[in-house]
């Protein structure tokens, strides 16, 4: 049958990325706690030379249908390399976004519950060089230092989303990145709390106030100390409890 995609194109315009976006697909994720089954949204693209009319879209899906290994940075590198070979491309990118669940124990009662985090694994390859990136949205509590300072009692606090994007020289576990952020917040979040736990998290946040600026600076200080991280962006959005807007800060390194 005619292969229209492989016919010549005369417009002399190369395409940086072409492929499929938001393929919903079951995957297994390998982390420190073992393997976890989840459902991901996958985008897969390759570069297209100026002289080629189109790419072969079905090959992206076929590659995922054949993939059986649990995903981590090592298997993502292999998958990205296989994609370039299958599509006969010299550059490509795979983005795999999924909910990641982690079991946490409440701070006083020890009750176990699951917390969910939005995670994206990103693999890019150009001229046989692989770059792995990890992006995580981590919900935490922040308590306002100014509110605490000026109030006779109490202080306003809120739930915050910290978005961490890491470009890695070596593999970084999802749980490691979550710990870095949660340890710098006014307090962590938990799926299930009893009354003694609620007392603990409320008082812990009060004793550990953080501006949105404090949050991103403290996390950035931790990240700079890890030689596995080549570059990072850390963002914090505080969903303010006494304003009809969010407070926001971002640090990018380098």
Automatic annotation (TrEMBL):
**Pfam families (alphabetical):** GCHY-1 (PF02649)
- Extract the InterPro entries matched here: GTP_cyclohydrolase_FolE2 (IPR022838), GTP_cyclohydrolase_FolE2/MptA (IPR003801)
**Alphabetic keyword roster:** Hydrolase
Under Gene Ontology molecular function, one entry of this record is:
GTP cyclohydrolase I activity
Q: Can you supply a Gene Ontology BP term from the record?
A: tetrahydrofolate biosynthetic process
PANTHER family from the UniProt entry: GTP CYCLOHYDROLASE MPTA
What protein name is recorded for this chain?
GTP cyclohydrolase FolE2
**Organism of provenance:** Kingella oralis ATCC 51147
């Amino acid at each position: 049958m005619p292969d229209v995609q492989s016919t010549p194109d005369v417009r002399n315009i190369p395409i940086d990325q072409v492929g499929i976006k938001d393929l919903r697909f079951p995957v297994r994720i390998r982390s420190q706690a073992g393997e976890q089954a989840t459902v991901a949204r996958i985008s897969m693209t390759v570069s297209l030379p100026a002289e080629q009319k189109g790419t072969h879209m079905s090959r992206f899906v076929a590659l995922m249908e054949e993939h059986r290994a649990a995903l981590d940075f090592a298997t993502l590198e292999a998958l990205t390399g296989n994609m370039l070979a299958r599509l006969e491309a010299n550059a490509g990118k795979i983005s795999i976004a999924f909910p990641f669940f982690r079991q946490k124990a409440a701070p006083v009662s020890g009750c176990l519950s699951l917390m969910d985090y939005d995670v994206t694994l990103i693999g890019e390859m150009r001229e046989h060089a692989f770059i792995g990136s990890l992006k995580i949205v981590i919900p935490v509590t922040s308590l306002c230092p100014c509110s605490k300072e000026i109030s006779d009692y109490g202080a306003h606090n809120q739930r915050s989303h910290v978005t961490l994007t890491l470009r890695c020289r070596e593999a970084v576990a999802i749980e490691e990145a979550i710990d870095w952020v949660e340890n710098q917040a006014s307090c962590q979040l938990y799926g299930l709390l009893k009354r003694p736990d609620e007392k603990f998290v409320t008082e812990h946040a009060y004793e550990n106030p953080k501006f949105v600026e404090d949050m991103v600076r403290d996390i950035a200080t931790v990240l700079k100390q890890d030689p596995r991280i080549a570059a990072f962006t850390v963002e914090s959005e505080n969903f303010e409890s006494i304003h009809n807007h969010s407070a926001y800060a971002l640090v990018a390194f380098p």
